[in-house]
Amino acid sequence: MLLKPYVLLFCTLWINGVSGQVHADSLHINLDSAERLFINGNYILLAQKYNIQAQKAQEIQAKLYPNPNLSVFYSLYNTETKKFFPVGPGTSGGELTAQLSQLVYLAGQRNKQVKIAEANTRLAEYQFYDLVRTLKYSLRTDFYNIHFLLRSASVYDEEIKSLQQVVKAFEEQEGKGYIAEKEVIRIKAQLYSLLGEYNSLVSQINDLESELRLVLQIKNTFIVPAMDSAKLESLDPAAYPLSVLLDSAYKNRSDLQVVRTTVEASKLNYNYQKSLAVPNLTLALAYDQQGSYINNLASLGAAIDLPFFNRNKGNILTAKIITEANSALQLSTEATVQENVSHALEKAFANDKMYRTLDPKFLMDFDRLLHEVLVNYEKRNLTLLDFLDFYASYKDNILSSNNIQFNRLSAFEDINFYTGTEFFKP
Fold this sequence. Notes:
426 residues; Outer membrane efflux proteins (OEP); four-stranded antiparallel β-sheet; two-stranded parallel ribbon
């Protein structure tokens, strides 16, 4: 199904000034190599990895116990002896007191904080996987699009070269009366029209190249995708039933895992907020040198807030509402997943059916006849209308073929994206 490559011709014409840009370096790369560059060098992914590490650090923090508190007091001034920081026995000396206290979490608050931190780490990981999924989808779509647009550009390249050849021949015959002036004008008008279309196509390729370079984090390089035609041909939407695709989506869709983990984290936060209604306990050991009913008093104490006014009701209610909202979002996401997968499969079948209607012999005949038509027109065996009509038909058929093949690949890539699984890889 694939046309012969015209990438070198295209690049030559481009460098000669059609696009106004020069690409000194070209990178011919297949999809596997592009994805390795993406995974290893994309800065957005690197930043998200740091976020995962930060969340894991919060797990460590949540597991720590509160520090004990030590307080020591000594007399600043003795009003009897008129001395600062007095030292001595009885009333001539000073008063020393000390207390060591420890906060004790009740109602499992510490364990609940640990579980929330662990859930946030899983959430960061799933967000990372979803970022990879989204950027990989963008990478592949741009990769395929550039491949087929370059092939379309080669068609313009061939047709422009042919018309330039005709115009040059006409100019050599100018003034000799062999060629009608209106015919020359018509050919030049067609050439200028093609150059305008070609320039728009080049701009589209430039935009996609820029996107692809950003994803791959490479600079000053023109990327030329390399694809295996045998793998393209072997793709079959009937290879996996809808039930398998749906099961994979429910299990592997990272955005669905994000929503589920968000629900889990909100439930954990709801339980944690309820535990905060139980006041924490403070245990203390105290020493009093000579300020109590006996000297050198050692005592044990406990302190706890009395939950008369604040039982954390507002935060509990907020956590409950957020949990219910996230649960509703989960149901909506699951319904969206099912629709995404079924629609993507339908689209893949439709585009594959369209692709199978293409006749490779028909396209090859067009390719073979292209030069013959040019020669016959130059010999005046064909009229101007027949010549231009053939070239327009040739261009339209090849562009249509490239568009059909790109849409087919995009449909398969949609299945990969919506299932979160690499079922199809050309």
